[in-house]
Every structure is written in C-alpha cells, then in structure tokens.
Records
---
Amino acid sequence: MTDLHKRSLLQLAALTAVASAALVGCGKKEEPAPAAAAPAAAASAPAAKPEPLKIAFAYVGPVGDGGWTFAHDNARKALEKEFGDKITTSFVENVPESADAERVIRDMAAQGNKLIFGTTFGYMDPMLKVAADTKDVKFEHATGYKQSDNMRTYDTRTYEGAYMAGVIAGKMTKSNTLGVVASVAIPEVLRNINAFTLGAQSSNPKVKTKVVWIGEWFNPPKETEAATSLINGGADILFQNTDSPAVLKTAQDKGKRAFGWDSDMSAYAPKAHLASSAINWAPYYIKATKDVLDGTWTGGGNSWWGVKEGAIDIVSIADDVPAETKAKIDEIKAGLKDGSFAIWKGPIVDNTGKVQIKKDEVADDKFLSGLGFYVKGVEGKVPNGK
C-alpha cells in the first residue's frame, strides 16, 4: 500500500470520528429512566366476617324420644338450614328439671352462646336466675310464665291438636271410654286433657275420660304401665301428654287405638295409630333467631302460637277414620286459622258441676294460662285437689 493510500484511509477514519462526535453533541440529551411507579395502594381488605351467632338448646329428654324433644331438635335443624353459617347450634339432652338445669344453662352462657332455649316448664326458675347474671345473653323459655328484660317465653297451643284428636276419638271409640296418660299437673296438661275430652264430646256426647298421672314427662316404663292400667279399666282409645311412643306401642300390643303426641308417631305403631298431634317449633325458632341477628329482639314478652301460625297440626290421620270426620277436622283447622272457631266457648262446666265458662263467652288466654280443673266427663280429681 502506498503512503498516499494510507494517508487517505487515516483521513477518512478521522472524518468519521468527527462526524460521530458531532451527531452525539447535537442530539437530545438522554433522559434518565423513569422511576418505577409506586405500587398501587393495596385494595381495602374485605370487612371481617361476623362471628356466627352461637345458639344452645337445653332438652329435658333424649333427641330420640320420638315426641317432645324430637320435635324441638327437628326445629333446631331447620334453624341451621335457614341461616347457614350465620349461626352455630348445640344442645344438651336429658337435662333434669332440677338444680342441674341451672348448672347446664350457666355453662351454655359461659361457652359464648348468646341465645339459649330452655325447652321445658321446669327450667323456668333456673333460667331466670342465670338470665339475671348474664345480661349479654338472650334467653327463651318454653311453656313458662316468668320473664325479664333478657328472657321471654314461648309456647304452642297444644290444646288445639288435642281437641282435634278428641273429635276423632269420639267417633272411633266403641266402649265410650277414653284414657289419658298424663305427665305433670300444670295448666298446660290440664288444657290438653280437657280439650281432648271436649273434642270427643262434640262427636260423641256419651264419652268419658279416665286419667292416669305418672309425674314425669319422659319415662317409657311408667307410660307403658299407665297405658295398660287404662286399657284394663275399659279404655279402647288412648291419648297422652307424655314424650315417648310407649302409650301408642302399648295400645298396639293390646289391640287398641291411640294417638301420637308432639311429633308424628305413626311409624312406631301403625296398626294402633289414629293420628298425631304434632308441634312445629321451627316458625318460632326462626323468628326468634332473626330477631337477634337483626338486633330487634326484646325480652319480657310471651308468644303463644297454634294452628294459625303453623305451629300445631293433626297429621297422618288413619285411613279408617270416616271421611266426614276428616272433613270436620279440616273445618276446625280453617276456623282456628281465621278465628271463626273457638274451642273454649261456653257453656263449659267442670266435673263438679260448676260453670267455668258462661254460655257464649270465650275464655281468654289469661283464663287458660291458669286453668286448674277437669271438664265434665273427666273422671277423678286433679292431683292438687281441684
């Protein structure tokens, strides 16, 4: 390569370097990279889900008694289905009507239950005592009459089912002698005995009612013994105000007829079963729970629900009950729903001949709440001597 050629190449390289430098000098100044955007504020965390309302039930008998406690527990299950994860429920069964009731109910409150149902008359005073000590808990007592600012009472008009059972019994009896296995001599039970008798007399004025008291709500051996005694005394149809199917089973064993009580007992003795007077506690339990969840629950009141509110019904009426008797039952139900039919309309006379409700008068709830006599047609004396 000649010296001239070399110089030419060097000059070209120099020119190229100068041009490049000029371009850099005349171009835009390089901007610094933008700072990374600050992360968006974390989305607001969802509000904490409220803790479920804890609800407890105290049962006087076992959940499998087929009657009273079984009906309450079915309603508890309906409550869970209605409210889902908004509530949790628990129960203690076989809680005696004694000092043990206070211990159990107090323990329920200590475990954080804010709504407690006591499901038998004998829990009244224990619940009242615990309620006075735990004002942040709401108490509901079944069949009682004492209330406080955080305790109220509720009941069902079981006498309506008893009356309808009586209408059937009066039509179906052949001996005109009916038998009742009774539990505890309180107005609730007396209303049922009397209503059963009044219903039977409406379809058969010749009937009379015999009663055997066992002094307990749930005692199958005693219930069986009492039922047997009534059958031996001439009763061919039995009624009960006790909690097990023992009376119905005894009737079947001895070729007689009987009714289920509190729940549908037809499966226990289908040959003997005439009908069951059933309680549906679910409507009330749902309302009470909704009141607590909504913040509208108030203490001190009493609710007494029956056919009108869907709390009482006569179910599984036997096929051999005459069609006209079934039609009469439907008529009575309709009348109880719309208020056109009254069970306790005078004249009603007790079994000593004393007029208890005058002609055309209708007994009010205050009268019924303190009822303490047998109507005409019921044999014997009430255990308290009346």
---
Amino acid sequence: MKYKNIIIIIIFVCFAYFIRLNTKAQELLENKANQDNYWLAKVIAIEETGEIALAEGELVMPWQKVRLKFLNGPQKGKEIIVKHGEQTQLKKSQFVKQRQKVVVLVSQTVEQEMRYYIVDHYRLPAVAIILAIFLALAIFIGRWKGLGSVAGLALSILVLINFTMPRILAGDDPLLISLLTSIIIALLSIYLAHGLNRRTTIAVISTLITLLTAVGLAVIYASLTNLSGLGSEEAFYLQVGVLDSLNTRGLLLGAIIIGSLGVLDDITTAQAATIDELKLANPNFNQAELFRRAMSVGKEHISALVNTLALAYVGASFPLLLLFTANTNQPLWFLLNTELVTEEVIRTLVGSTALILAVPITTFLAAKFLSSKTRF
C-alpha cells in the first residue's frame, strides 16, 4: 500500500539525517581526553578490617586493607594493596569481599606517584544476566510482538546514545534534538512492535500530534514557573568546563518530552487497537458509536496510567522526598517552591496532561478512519 511506502521513506530519511549529523559529534567524543584511568581488578584477599578517624575528634569510619590483582590495563596481572575507605567515607555495605571484581581508579600525582582507589563494584555481568532474563521472557511470552518490542527498545537506546547525547554535547539545541529523537523512536518502536497496518499508523500519528502538544505545554509551563534547568546537582555540574554553554532549560524540556513519549505509545496503540477490535466485533458500529465505546475504555486507561506515571516519578525522586521530609530547618512552602521540586512537578504534569489528551485524539482519529474502508 502507498502509506507503507511513505512510512519506509520517512524512516530512511530520518536515519540518513541521523547518520549525517552524528559524524561530527562522534569525532568530538572520540577526541575527549581523560587523565584518569579506570581498571578492572579482582579481590585476592582482605588483609585487614578496622576503623579510622578522618581527623581527631571526627566520626570514625570503617575501612579495609585489600589485596587486588589487575585484570586489564597496562598493569594486568600485577597485585597491589589498597586501603579502601582510608580517605573517603565508607559504609560497611560498601565493603568488598574476596573473589569479587571491583573498579579501580588509577591516577597520577604531580610527583608521578601512582594512586589507586576502589570506586565501585563490577556489576555488568549481573546486569547482563538480568537483561537476558527480561529479553527471554519478552520474546517467549510476546512471541513476534515481543521480539519487535525488544528490537524497538534496542534501536531506541542506540539512537539516544549515538545521536541524541553526542548532538547535545556538540552544541545543538537540546529541545530540538530531543523532539527529533522522539519522532525517530516513535516510528521505530511502534512499527516494530505492532507492525505496518492502519491502526498502528493511526497510533503513530496520534503519538506525534500529542508529542507536539506536550512540547508546547512544556515550554509554556517552564516559562510560567521560571525554570532554568539548574534545579538538580547533575545539571549544575554540566555547567562546568566545556559544557558551560549548554542550554540547561532546553535540556530539561527535552527530558520532559522523551519521558512523555514513554507513556504515549502505550495509550495510543491501545486506543487504536480497541476501536479496531470493536469494529471487527460489530461492523455495524458507526464512527460515533466507536468513539463512545472506546472513550469508555480510554477513561479507565487514563485513571491507571496517570497514577502509574506519578508514582514512577515519585519513585525516581524517593531519596529527595526523604531528604525534604527530614528537613525541619526550612518551611514546607519554601521546599515546595524550590526549582528542584518544581521541575519534577512540571515533568509529571506535562506527561500526565499529554497522556490524557492522547486518549480523545487517538480515539477520534481511529474512529474516523477505522469506521470506514478508507485507505491511507
């Protein structure tokens, strides 16, 4: 069908544009120098465990004397002794154990002396096992649709890593790049998961319309609340060094848009599928009847997803909420007024508003086109 050829052309053009823009950004990242080295090491033995005071009269902190063997890097095979926790605050939950693999930061002092620090546990093998379980379940239960979803997820991550981040680091407008990223991800993930058909195309169109609406809401809300994008500690650090000219407000808006996309494709595909199934079940349903019945389902979907979205943001900010709850030195209104809290509120409200608007938009388009034999 003609619309399938148009979709393929759009995807091809997006990828061509993505590859062209990405070349310069990749060169920028590859040329970035790093004076410190991170090496992988294995804990051979715990030679001593004790406590040490960082200074006289200060809090006593636990520490370990650890024998390590490097598994990679210029000193592969070499064994060293590291005093883990001697110069940094360490909790017992951060203790390493024999035969564990750890990440070691190797730095060089002005006097050319090598310093070694255990900075983290090596978690990638465990993460790989957990990821394999997830992929196996998705493919086993979802079959071809599950495989398509996994492929869409993989491509989405590749777009974010190889296009979005490098382009923002290269100085492009974060909001524009995030919007382009969302369009590419929407096309790839929805079509791969649900196939090339009319109801999927309606879901894609509805997603893009709602996404553009979310962009407008995010810009207006950020302006009304005077958000600068510097509410978080991470955003503040981005203003140091080569990234001092980064558009932090644009970065915040871009993050809101990409975050909104995560729930939009769920509700648009569900609404389009609902109307398609209703029409198949009763071909006599007209556009108005399809719209009414599908909206009834959509309202139930909204009530569940709005709560889900809000709780997802709350869960991501749980340590922050605990910190504010424990803070008795400042009034509650002052804490709620801070940019850090306002950012999270606006993020949640934009995503929730877009989600609500997606239901009537998708339902209207699906009822209009699926109630007839119109091809597009």
